[in-house]
Amino acid sequence: MSLTLPFPRLTKLLLAAAAIAFCAGSANAAVETYAIDPVHSAVGFSIRHFVSKVPGKFTKFSGKITVDRDNLEKSSVTARIEIASVETGDNDRDTHLKSPDFFDAAKHPAMTFTSTAWKKTGADTFDITGDLTIKGIKKRVVLKTSLLGFGPGAQGAQLSGWEATTTVKKADFDLKGPAMLGTMLGDDVTITISVEAVKK
Fold it and tell me: Which residues contact residue 199 at a Cβ distance below 8 angstroms, ignoring those fewer than 6 apart?
């Protein structure tokens, strides 16, 4: 039995396969993956202390942004922040923040964020909804995010820039601290993020 296909039919099959491959390639071409560059990024926070606000930051973190340039609402982001890297300008306070009174870094060494939806709110702004997990407690939060742009960097790197902010309640993540702190500390924690990410 001959398995040879008639030439016209073979041609049609080859053209169909080529069209499918072209469409798949075009769809994938719009999707780009960027790795957060911790050297040129920052994760900060502030909380009320009596009548003022005290700032802090985390110095070790990583993450990935998958961007659909044709439809940014199809993008996604994941991030991991190392609790032991917290810095507030006071060693005793940093040690206390890592203790079981607050983050309990020994049992919960990192907080994580995984986006679940991107909603366009302006020309270059988005509400990025996602799951923030701290001390094993997962809560839904919304990052008010601005796209700063895409462009070339040093040594041929392709970059994307982002800024985001959100406010969370420390009580939601069991970060209340000892009772003796009472009303010394506010409950709302403002988180500010500045990201430069490198295309992979």
Answer: 32, 33, 34, 157, 158, 159, 160
3-state DSSP call for residue 9? helix
Inter-residue long-range contacts of 118-123, CB under 8 Å, 24+ positions, other chains counted: 118/72, 118/73, 118/74, 118/75, 118/76, 119/73, 120/72, 120/73
Asked whether residue 29 carries a pLDDT value surpassing 60, the answer given is: no
Q: What is the CA radius of gyration of the chain?
A: 23
Nearest to 39 by CA among 200, 197, 199: 197
Q: 177, 171 in Cβ contact below 8 A? A: no
Residue type, 64: K
Measure the CA dihedral 45/118/110/46, to 10°.
10
Lookup result for tokens 């702004």:
125
Could you report the per-residue pLDDT of 156-175, keeping only the tens digit for each? Answer: 999 999 999 999 999 999 99
Write out the DSSP string of 139-194.
EEEEEEEEEEEEEE-GGG-EEEEEEEEEEEEGGGGT----GGGGGGEEEEEEEEEE
